[in-house]
């Protein structure tokens, strides 16, 4: 049997799927997991379109997505805004 690598991007077409995917990634102890998940969401929506909406060049967005460095918070916030994603906080008691 021939197998192919798993591609999560193909599963990120509904808002509720994207929300659940990012929520799980956000709860991981390693912040790179969230950045990788955000990268997959951006790729599912189209890098050029998200870059334009976030006010970034496509090249700088690809640098953010390459996984070699951690983006600054203001860049992450711009990307979330461009994707119409809002982070909510709650106290866990």
What does this structure look like?
The longest helix is centred in the middle third of the chain and has 15 residues, at 31-45. The mean pLDDT is 90. The relative contact order is 0.14. It contains five helices and no strands. α1 (15-26) runs antiparallel to α2. The protein has helices at residues 15-26, 31-45, 47-54, 58-65, 73-82.
Brief descriptors of the model:
93 residues; mainly alpha; 434 Repressor (Amino-terminal Domain)
Topology:
Elements: H1 15-26, H2 31-45, H3 47-54, H4 58-65, H5 73-82
Helix pairs in contact: 1-2, 3-4, 3-5
Shape: globular
Separation, N- and C-terminal Cα atoms:
49 Å
- The helicity comes to 55-70%
- Structure summary, number of beta strands: 0
- Computed over alpha carbons, the radius of gyration is 14 Å
Number of helices: 5
Question: What's the CATH topology name?
Answer: 434 Repressor (Amino-terminal Domain)
Nearest-integer average pLDDT: 90
Low-confidence segments: none
Estimated structural class: mainly alpha
Order of helices and strands: HHHHH
CATH architecture assignment = Orthogonal Bundle
Q: Indicate the CATH class.
A: Mainly Alpha
The major β-sheet equals: none
What is the domain tally? 1
Give the strand content. Answer: under 5%
């Amino acid at each position: 049997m021939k197998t192919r690598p798993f591609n999560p991007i193909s599963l990120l077409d509904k808002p509720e799927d994207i929300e659940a995917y990012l929520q799980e990634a956000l709860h991981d102890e390693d912040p790179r997991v969230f950045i990788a998940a955000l990268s997959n969401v951006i790729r599912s929506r189209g890098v050029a379109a998200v870059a334009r909406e976030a006010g970034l060049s496509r090249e700088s967005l690809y640098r953010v997505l390459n996984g070699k460095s951690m983006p600054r918070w203001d860049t992450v916030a711009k990307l979330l805004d461009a994707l119409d994603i809002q982070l909510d906080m709650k106290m866990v008691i």
